[in-house]
Structure formats: C-alpha cells, structure tokens
Design goal:
Chitinase A, domain 3; 56% helix
C-alpha cells in the first residue's frame, strides 16, 4: 500500500498544477451547487472537483474513484495550496514580473486546452462509413505477423572473450544438445545450465515473438525450425543458444470489429491535427510570430545557467 501511495503521489503532484489553477479560475459557485471546500473567498464545488478528476490520467482517475484517501489527499492539497497562494498575494508576490509571467503561461495553457476541446475535438466527427472504408483500403496495416513460440538454453560468452572461451562455450552447448537428443528434458536442462536470468527459471520459455524482436541469427534459427525441433548451437553476440521451437502462428488478418475503435481514433487524431494546423496557420496571419533561432541556440549553453 505504501508503494502504491508513493507512485500515485507523484502523479498527483504532476496533475495538481492544472487541477488547482483551473479550480481557482472557475471560482463561480452558485447557491444550488454543493460546496466541497471553502478557503476565504475561494470555493471548490463537488462538480468542479469531479470535472477536474476526469482530467487526470486514467490510472489516477481509477485510483481516485476507488480510494477515498486519495481523494482526501487531493482536496487537502487544494486547501493547502490555496492558503499558501493567499499568503503569497498578501506579500505582493503576484505583482512580481517573473511570477506574473508564470501565471500568464499557466492561464494560456488552460485556455488553449479549452479552445481545443470546443473548437477542434467537439467539431471533429468520424462516421462508421469512414472507419470501414479506411479498413478496406489499409488491410495490410491490420495484420498479426507470423510468430513462433520458442525456448532456449544460453551459454553466455562475454563480448570481449578470447577464442578459447568461445570454443569452450560451444563445446558445452554441443554436450547439452547431445543430452537432449538422448531424451533429457529441455526444461530441466535449461534450469540447470542456461545463463539467461530472464528465462532460466521458466525452462527457457520466451513466449511468442514476431520477426524483428530477436537478434538475426537467433530469429533465423527459430523461424526455420518446425515445432518440436531443436537447433544445433547458434552463435550470437550473447554466446551460444540451443533453441527449440514449440509452436507457430501464421500471419493473419485482424477482423474489422477488433480494430474498429483503433481506426476511429486514428482518423479522429488525423482530422484534429489537420484542423489544428489550419487554425494555427490562420492565427499566425492574424498575429505575426517572430522567432530568433540564433538566440535559441544560446539556450542550450552552460547547465549552470538553469540553476
């Protein structure tokens, strides 16, 4: 439980700036709304709290819904930060040009998010016909590749080892292969001899994998074997492997119903991106933008400048 709280606490810290700033900016409670907390003139309603919870990452949203302690923790932080904010204003810190610039940045960020929701996300629609047509035209993008399930016994050799050590490892691998040919159990020998810590205790089981996941020599051997066959020692940068292919899956076409949601999301993002690009292009015509790229180069200077 302590480990869980430490992980979610960091997520809360990341999300808190937007949560607090938005909640404070929306300090518009009406008499009909349920008041969750008040700090001086600042009011946080239950509705505002719930709306801001929905802006948090999915993992944290789920944790918040299931754990009242986390909700209380977030509310306590709102109270504490609001109190500290009031103290800062009483000291005139909000009048500081540096602080005012930071506040303006946060405000612009929130306004930009709301603009994107209302003017882009809410306006983009994706029809079922579009989704189906995309699938028909791009079927090759929605295929499960050929896969093999294999296990191995690794006799590890250091990359800087001399030829003598490589030869010793090869001979050891050959001896293990002979024992396998005589009928000894692969799983038992893997647990006894394999130098792969990730699979040793699983009998060398690597599960299913597609091409491109393993080093070329290992991949070529695993895909060339028939189910049940065991390879001769295969040399890779890691040492010598004895590989047994256990099962094969042929490449297959994913069904439309299984990728429909994914396609809809892809089209949605693409439309949003194009709409965003157009909006930014129009805005740049209305508000000329000047960027000094030569000066930008100096921003990556001495790391001490950022302290």
């Amino acid at each position: 439980m302590t480990k869980f709280f430490s992980k979610t606490s960091s997520l809360i810290t990341v999300a808190l700036t937007v949560f607090l700033t938005t909640a404070l900016a929306l300090n518009l409670a009406t008499a009909k709304e349920e008041i969750l907390a008040k700090v001086g003139a600042h009011t946080l309603t239950l509705k505002q709290f719930q709306e801001q919870m929905r802006t948090l990452p999915p993992q944290l949203q789920m944790a918040m819904m299931q754990n009242p302690q986390l909700r209380e923790q977030l509310l306590d932080r709102w109270v504490n930060v609001t109190l500290l904010g009031e103290k800062a204003k009483s000291l005139g810190l909000d009048k500081s040009p540096e602080v005012a610039a930071k506040i303006e940045d946060v405000k612009n960020s929130i306004l930009a998010q709301e603009l994107l929701k209302k003017e882009i996300q809410a306006k983009v629609k994706v029809s079922d016909k579009e989704v189906e047509e995309y699938y028909k035209k791009n079927k090759d993008k929605f295929k499960d590749p050929e896969q093999v399930k294999a296990r191995h016994i690794l006799i590890k050799v250091d990359a800087k080892a001399d030829e003598k050590k490589w030869k010793a490892a090869e001979n050891k691998a050959k001896d293990i292969k002979k024992r396998l040919e005589k009928g000894e159990d692969f799983v038992k020998l893997a647990k006894e001899f394999s130098d792969d810590p990730g699979t040793k205790n699983k009998g060398g089981d690597l599960g299913f994998f597609a091409k491109g996941r393993m080093v070329p020599e290992f991949e070529a051997a695993a895909f060339a074997l028939k189910p049940g066959q065991i390879s001769d020692p295969v040399k890779t940068v890691y040492g010598y492997h004895i590989i047994q292919t256990m099962e094969k899956k042929q490449a297959s076409q994913k069904e439309f119903k299984d990728v429909k949601a994914q396609i809809r999301q892809m089209i949605q993002r693409d439309k949003e991106r194009k709409l965003m690009e157009k909006m930014l292009a129009d805005l740049k015509k209305q508000h000329p933008v000047t960027v000094n790229k030569e000066l930008l180069g100096k921003a990556g200077g001495n790391p001490h400048n950022f302290r």
